[in-house]
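This protein record is not my work; I was only asked to verify it. Where you disagree with what is written, explain briefly why. This is what I was given:
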Amino acid sequence: MAMARGHVISSPNVSPVTSVGKLGCRGSKASQQKIKTKIQYSPLRFQQSPFNHHYKCIERGATYEESNKNYVLKAVTVPSSESESEASNSKNIVESVKNFIAVLYEFIYPYALYGQASAAISASLVAIEKLSDISPLFIIGLLQAVLPHSFVVLYINGVNQLFDFEIDKINKPYLPLAAGKLSFRSCAIIVALSAILGLGLNLMIGSPPLIWNFVLCVTIWTCYSVNLPFLRWKQYPVMASLLIFVCWAYIFPITYFFHVQTFVFKRPVVFTRSLIVSLLFLSIYTTGLALAKDIPDVEGDIKHGIDSFAARLGQKKVFWICVFLFEMAFGVAFLAAASSSSPFWIKFVTSLGNVALGSILWYQTKYVDVTNPASVVDGLICSPAFN
């Protein structure tokens, strides 16, 4: 009996049911009952054995060790893989948003946006008659002028890129559309949304000068860029220069001025001395601007039949004509400031400011290589004369 009991306990491959059957043939019922009781408790002793044995559970037929392993795998590995997948998706979304913002920033011509904002601010400041006019009311009116027109600038630049796609591959291959960073369809959607948002914001504000600003700018620059019969006026040098001249010298300053003058301050329509001086300054300034904008684009313009002044007269000659016009504009502003009836410190600061801007422009010209488009953009277009 002792030998039989020891055999059952030490044997690794004997199940409780099989052992009881074998022992039942050799001993009495009492002995079988003792052995059966011993065997029923034996899995607890087997579990602590140093040997790797497998024992079947009577209820489900699966091994105790296997069911324990399945439970651990489900509890540890599955949530870990899901959390890693979620983290990876979140990272991809953030990267996509960052890339889109960077491409959109390149698409809107940042220097054009800065120029528009500075034009709106300077024209609005012309409507200031006394120091108390600089108030929260004026700041709100200034934002009403700057923000909606930012969408107009985005529309103008977007339309130009859509219809200058082949030319930009030569003149400006770094632009998102020409470089393939932005699809033609995405560009068209951005342009359409910009026009809708610009119009919607101006209608919500309800300022008649700003609404006229939007209508005139969108109409003029659509005619300037769109390649349809009787349009695409940019291919005619005189017409192209005239459009730029009218927009920057008259439409922008007059509409921004009257927005603040009549809509914000509720004052009567008056052409003040400051406004007249500003229009005179901008008439000279924008003439140079209209000529200078085509200097970096001569190669592509000639190839695609755009007969600009820079293509006709030569880049270097047009460049120095522009510099002369810009310096003349700063000279007019200097004389107007020096002869004004303002307090001495205002005349001094204004005169000194114009001298400083003219000096910076002149200093910048010696670093400009007119045959290098990037040099022209960095050295002249981004100078104070263009902002």
About this structure: The first helix runs from residue 2 to 10. The chain is about 75% helix and 0% strand. Residues 1-75 form one domain.
